[in-house]
Design goal:
D-Maltodextrin-Binding Protein, domain 2, five-stranded mixed beta sheet, 34% helix, single chain, alpha/beta
């Protein structure tokens, strides 16, 4: 269940902000036509999911301001939108995953992971494969040939395949449908327009409370299949003026 405690939020945030401060101190991030030495806001791309909760709490509690680190959280509904913004230089960094980092580098956008923010153990971070209410799906075997809603080429896609493979399904028995926007994926699942979907917390918990059935949960397996990282464009870290 979604139980990311405030104490843990603060610990994760502090480890991240210390790294971010080091990055900022190493960059000449001054605004044109602004007082000398004034830092530009560090623009971070975030999604409405558990992984990003520490950053929302930090912003709400004024932690960025108190630490002397101006930061602006830019929200996106899908990992693809977030990654495109990073590639376009619209954001400096993002809370993402190792899959995203690899794909960004492959697409020609040099990025550097500066911190693991969640996923040091299988119990951290929760991705859930859920069946729609009244879908008749009760166990992994019922998903053979059923299109599972995911965001293609993201950690969600990878988690779906790994969970089903661990549960005994063969690659040819696993099928998906691409629904990148997380809120849309939730709505379609609850409306029964897709029979199954993979969602992160807290939306996975919300779906469960509204009648969706948990089929597989990555915090309930022994294999650690998902990690969340903080990454920045290398340009920002090394030589952004």
């Amino acid at each position: 269940m979604f139980n990311y405690t405030r104490g843990k939020i603060i610990c994760v945030f502090l480890s991240v902000i210390l790294l971010a401060v080091l990055i900022m101190s190493g960059c000449s991030r001054t605004q044109k036509n602004s007082p000398a030495g004034k830092l530009e806001p560090l623009k971070l791309g975030v999604l409405p999911i558990e992984d990003n909760f520490p950053f929302f709490v930090a912003q709400a509690d004024g932690m960025f301001t108190k630490a002397g680190l101006p930061a602006e959280l830019i929200s996106f509904n899908s990992a693809r939108e977030r990654d495109l913004a990073l590639q376009a230089g619209e954001i400096d960094g993002e809370v993402a995953d190792i899959v995203a980092a690899a794909l960004l580098k492959k697409a020609g956008t040099p990025v550097k992971i500066v911190s693991l923010t969640m996923g040091s153990t299988p119990r951290e971070g929760r991705f859930v494969l859920l069946a729609a209410p009244d879908s008749g799906i009760d166990q992994p075997a019922d998903l053979k040939g059923v299109k599972v809603a995911v965001s293609e080429h993201t950690i969600i896609d990878y988690v779906n395949y790994r969970l089903l493979a661990i549960a005994g399904l063969r690659p040819e028995e696993i099928t998906t449908v691409n629904i990148p926007a997380i809120p849309a994926r939730l709505q379609l699942l609850l409306a029964g327009q897709v029979k199954a979907a993979v969602l992160p917390d807290p939306l996975a918990t919300l779906a469960e409370k509204k009648g969706a059935k948990v089929i597989l949960d990555d915090t309930q397996i022994n294999e650690n299949i998902s990690q969340v990282v903080l990454l920045f464009r290398e340009e920002v870290i090394e030589n952004k003026a």
